[in-house]
């Protein structure tokens, strides 16, 4: 019986990449999206790509970051799927290589129990181009998942994970149910459930 579900945020619970929305404000959306794609496809180290992309955001007003973070488009079926999993007794958590401004706000809307993500450093109301947090490396999600499983007393077979990109691979290694959601090929190869449509409720039909 499943006890724990862990979802990625960007392009999984949320329809898009938070950092791309930020970059569009500075007119550098294309440049940042290109780096994001390389990282999510596994062709670029996640830590290096995150540093690169956040560095390009230097100077963006933090008030703009907050406004965008609070108006992101959530994935169809996200609210319903999380509510049903919790009704079934699961703890539902969000792991994101993105940012707390987005995952923290979404928590009250989507209904998950906790979020682990990164924090954009701001000083005097503007981004400094620096970032720190829980999900900085390609291995971070797997590492955090193992720790959560130990705390909660949950086994791999009692764990469901869902993501779309290469930085989700590390958590796939520690879960019995591995959902690749509108995912890159590198992740689909390690999945035992593959969903091609933007509808998270399809997970409920397959578990």
Describe the structure concisely for a colleague:
This protein is an alpha/beta fold.
Number of domains: 1
The Rg value, from CA coordinates, equals: 16 Å
Can you identify the CATH superfamily? HAD superfamily/HAD-like
The assigned structural class equals alpha/beta
Overall CATH class: Alpha Beta
Largest sheet properties? 7 strands, mixed
Tally of DSSP β-strands: 7
What is the subunit organization of this protein? single chain
Number of helices: 10
Q: Give the helix proportion (percent range).
A: 40-55%
CATH architectural designation: 3-Layer(aba) Sandwich
Portion of residues in beta strands equals 15-25%
The N- to C-terminal Cα distance equals: 10 Å
Order of helices and strands: EHHHHHEHEEHEHEHEH
The whole-number mean of residue pLDDT values reads 96
Overview of this protein structure:
This protein is an alpha/beta fold and 207 residues long. The protein has a single domain, classed as HAD superfamily/HAD-like (Rossmann fold, 3-Layer(aba) Sandwich), CATH 3.40.50.1000. Helix content is 41%, strand content 22%. It has ten helices and seven strands. The chain has a seven-stranded mixed beta sheet with strand order 4-3-2-1-5-6-7. Helix 6 links the parallel strand 2 and strand 3. The chain is globular. The N and C termini lie close together (10 Å). The mean pLDDT is 96.
């Amino acid at each position: 019986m499943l006890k724990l579900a862990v979802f990625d945020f960007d392009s999984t619970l949320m329809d898009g990449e938070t950092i791309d929305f930020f970059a569009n404000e500075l007119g550098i959306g294309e440049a940042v999206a290109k780096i994001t794609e390389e990282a999510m496809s596994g062709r670029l180290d996640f830590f290096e790509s995150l540093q690169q992309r956040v560095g390009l955001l230097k100077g963006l007003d933090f008030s703009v970051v907050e406004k965008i973070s609070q108006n992101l488009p959530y994935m169809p079926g996200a609210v319903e799927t999380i509510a049903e999993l919790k009704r079934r007794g699961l703890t539902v958590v969000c792991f994101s290589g993105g940012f707390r401004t987005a995952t923290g706000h979404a928590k009250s809307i989507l209904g998950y129990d906790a979020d682990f993500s990164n924090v954009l450093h701001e000083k005097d109301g503007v981004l400094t181009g620096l970032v720190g947090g829980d999900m900085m490396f390609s291995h971070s999600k797997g590492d955090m998942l193992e720790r959560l499983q130990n705390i909660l007393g949950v086994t791999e077979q009692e764990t469901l994970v869902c993501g779309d990109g290469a930085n989700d691979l590390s958590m796939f290694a520690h879960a019995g149910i591995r959902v690749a959601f509108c995912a890159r090929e590198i992740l689909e190869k390690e999945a035992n459930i593959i969903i091609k449509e933007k509808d998270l409720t399809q997970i409920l039909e397959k578990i």
